[in-house]
TrEMBL record:
GO terms for biological process: cell adhesion involved in single-species biofilm formation; negative regulation of bacterial-type flagellum-dependent cell motility. SMART domains: GGDEF (SM00267). Residues 205-335 form the GGDEF domain. Keywords: Membrane, Transmembrane, Transmembrane helix. The chain crosses the membrane at residues 12-35, 42-63, 69-87, 99-132, 144-161. It comes from Actinoplanes lobatus. InterPro entries: Diguanylate_Cyclase, GGDEF_dom, Nucleotide_cyclase, Rev_trsase/Diguanyl_cyclase. PROSITE patterns: GGDEF. One of its GO terms (molecular function) is diguanylate cyclase activity. It comes from the Bacteria. This is Diguanylate cyclase (GGDEF)-like protein.
Length: 340
């Protein structure tokens, strides 16, 4: 299963901040403040600072250029760098160990639970290497246990907050793009999707737009009340969802008694879908007003139109012809070459 990064731009900014902060910090504390240290050590630290700066600039400005594997691997690289620098400087004090917080917070914020657990294990191992090498046994053991527990608890809190925010975001996105009565997509979601869908339409993979009006819906509301009218709309939305052979189609309520469906189908496939919808609606039970009748207009890209606006226009024209012809029927748009 491929590793999913939760937020590329957020992860890129996090990596950029680390690298652009670590580069001057490492240069100042590891090179300029220790000019009397062995030359190979100073060169290594200087090169590390330069590499960190370059990576930070790329992540900040061109994150899409980084390979996909970089993002799940970067916290482990960070742990290796922190551990290596602490070993090189023989520093087991608290300050340098706090840099382990970055890979931990990065993993808990942008990666899944398994990788976060592996990051905690890597931090624990890295700190153990430093603590047991440069401090006495009892002190090292206490530091190692405290660091591992603290990192684990921090990861649990951050991951929990992230998952809660993910759930809240999903709820808000659903509320912003769906019709509260029928559960279908709303006009905003439909307008966003039709543009993307039409650009992908090809003669071998056409896109059908099915426009639906509930016939004499005002009469239903006036005679039976709005509650029964709402039930009729829900019955239509359910039929539109259930009639497709697959679940890759989009059902939208554009307003009032007007619905639209986007599905991957050729003209005859779209017409067959429309008649299946009509059959399902006619079998609806529990409506005092009886099953509502539908007028349906169908247009297919690229057969009838090349762009989203033209596709909606010709589908609306087909719907208008269905109404003019007596309602309760489906009409196919006229192919563009014939209309011209």
């Amino acid at each position: 299963m491929p590793i999913q990064l939760r937020d590329l731009h957020g992860a890129a900014r996090a990596v950029a901040c680390l690298m652009l902060a670590a580069a001057p910090y490492n240069l100042i504390t590891g090179v300029l403040m220790k000019l009397g240290d062995p030359l190979p050590q100073l060169i290594t630290l200087g090169v590390t600072s330069a590499v960190a700066f370059v990576i930070g600039m790329v992540c900040l400005n061109l994150p899409e250029r980084m390979p996909a594997l970089f993002w799940p691997v970067v916290p482990f690289l960070g742990i290796a760098v922190v551990t290596g620098l602490n070993v090189a400087t023989e520093d087991a004090t608290l300050g340098p160990q706090l840099f382990y917080l970055w890979p931990l917070l990065y993993a808990a914020s942008f990666l899944g639970r398994t990788l976060t657990g592996l990051v905690i294990a890597a931090i624990s191992a890295g700190h153990a290497l430093i603590a047991f090498q440069f401090t006495d046994g009892a002190h090292a053991l206490n530091d190692w246990i405290a660091m591992t527990v603290a990192m684990s608890m921090t990861a649990i809190v951050v991951a929990g907050l992230r998952e809660r925010n993910d759930r809240l975001r999903d709820v808000l996105e659903n509320q912003a793009t769906s019709d509260p009565l029928t559960g279908a997509a709303n006009r905003r979601a439909f307008d966003a999707e039709i543009g993307r869908a039409v650009t992908r339409a090809r003669p071998e993979d056409p896109l059908a737009l099915v426009m639906i009006d509930v016939d004499h819906f005002k009469t239903i509301n006036d005679t039976w009340g709005h509650a029964i009218g709402d039930q009729a709309l829900c019955a239509v939305a359910d039929a539109l969802r259930d009639a497709a052979d697959d679940r890759g189609h989009m059902v939208a309520r554009l307003g009032g008694d007007e619905f639209a469906v986007l599905l991957r189908a050729a003209p005859y496939g779209a017409l067959r879908y429309a008649e299946q919808v009509r059959t399902r609606v006619s079998g609806a039970t529990g409506l005092p007003c009886g099953p509502p009748r539908l007028s349906i207009g169908i247009a297919v890209a690229p057969d009838h139109a090349a762009g989203p606006d033209d596709l909606q226009r010709v589908a609306d024209a087909a719907l208008y012809r269905a109404k003019e012809g007596g309602r309760g029927r489906s009409m196919m748009a006229t192919p563009a070459r014939l209309a011209a």
